[in-house]
Amino acid sequence: MDKLTITEVKSILQQPKIKADILKHLAEDERQGVQRLLVSYQRRIEKQQKMQATFNERQVFEQAYWKKGQFVAGIDEVGRGPLAGPVVAAAVVLDDNFDLIEVHDSKQLSLKKREALVPKIKSQALDYAFGVVTSEQIDEINIYQAARVAMSEAYKGLQYNVNGLLIDAMDLDIELEQTSLIKGDDRSISIGAASILAKDYRDNLMAEYDLKYPGYDFKNNAGYGTAKHLAGLEKLGITPIHRKTFSPVKNYLN
């Protein structure tokens, strides 16, 4: 061990598991380079342990079902606030083999991280499904009811028979045990997974609409009222995917 170079020490400390006697030996190494690497290693381990602890906390609601040999679906929706496009919900069923500790509220994740997590979530999930409510339907029944419909449709799309639902701050007209959680996407791993899948699905839809209706920057604003979007409304008027009951869209109806 005394003959290890700094580069070799760095390689060792990047391994997922390191024996205690090796760490003890490195701790006794007086070279500043080794000590700096050990500090960096310890910080990384502490961060991972903290993430694992919070991940375990986000499994509490699911564990209540898993311990009984039951399944529960987490449901979340995205797209209540935009001026254009649908509201999209996702329902996700997980089991206790799910180990993606970075999964939580999609709004707290970067685009790069969300895109990396989506295929992993789909691979590990037992089941997932989506519900989509169009802008026309939103105008007919209001955005709150549209979100509920989208969530119900996502649940109905599941192939798994679940024993309960974990829902982000909502209740549905479904005869099944439900737990409504305020900020559920950051308190439940299955709701968090649903929020990530729903956002990814909707963002891809809006990117397609950006090609169909250029001039509003839908690809980058997802239908929210950004400066470029409002400029597009002023110059081009409304499109078929705009929500006509939303301000300021309704100002352009004539």
From TrEMBL:
UniProt-listed CDD domains: RNase_HII_bacteria_HII_like
GO molecular function: manganese ion binding; RNA binding; RNA-DNA hybrid ribonuclease activity
An example Gene Ontology biological process: DNA replication, removal of RNA primer
Cofactor note: Manganese or magnesium. Binds 1 divalent metal ion per monomer in the absence of substrate. May bind a second metal ion after substrate binding.
Pfam families: RNase_HII
UniProt KW Transmembrane keyword: no
Cofactor dependency: Mg(2+); Mn(2+)
Gene name for this UniProt entry: rnhB
GO cellular component, one term: cytoplasm
Known role: Endonuclease that specifically degrades the RNA of RNA-DNA hybrids.
Compartments, as annotated in UniProt: Cytoplasm
Catalytic activity: Endonucleolytic cleavage to 5'-phosphomonoester
EC number: 3.1.26.4
Top-rank lineage group of the source organism: Bacteria
Name of the protein: Ribonuclease HII
